[in-house]
Amino acid sequence: MPKKLIEKFVELRVSGALEPYQEAVAFMERRVGEIHIGAAPETLWLLEHPPLYTAGTSAADGELLDPGRFPVFQTGRGGRYTYHGPGQRVAYVMLDLSKRGNDVRAFVHSLEDLVIAALDQFGVKAETRAGRIGIWVDRGQGREEKVAAIGIRVRRWVAYHGVAINVDPDLSHFSGITPCGISNHGVTSLKALGVACAMEDVDRALISSFEDIFKTPIKIALKGKL
Description:
Distance between the termini: 36 Å
CATH architecture: 2-Layer Sandwich
Helix content: 10-25%
CATH superfamily: Bira Bifunctional Protein, Domain 2
Shape: globular
Strand content: 25-35%
């Protein structure tokens, strides 16, 4: 089927209520198919989930430390166990990589750059670490903590899932898992780093950084908090 011509923008969706995980994945699966045939634009979806754990394709059973604490969802994204919950901004990024060089590694690096650039707007110096997934901050004296997680899946060269930034979640909820399989480093949040900001502030930082890094304008389609 030939691809239809659609506008060259990324559709922004912002959810004001907590989004059930399974419903969010179902939407992404549908949207990925629509993007592939050119029936819908690429999409950036900003949301929060109720408390839950997700298991990526590399998750090990022993990394789920408290199985009865929250619902656990198996997911097709890469990575290991991750926590999602209120106070964490999830950015699901659905982009057609066939229009962006068919380079999955470069896409992951762009997601890393997106988070780093967004956090920089709050004066937070965040970095990647070789051999460790996610975005990290140096707390001094050899102590490093993870402030954002990254996990993606690619189907028919359309990428989806994305990033999760800890704005002000209950950090004790991460104790039910070994986050991303890494046990010798902690987890932090913008609040724990001394940054007082609303979720809308984080959204604006993500949107401006997204347009700069992915070189595509954003168009609001479903207005939530913005």
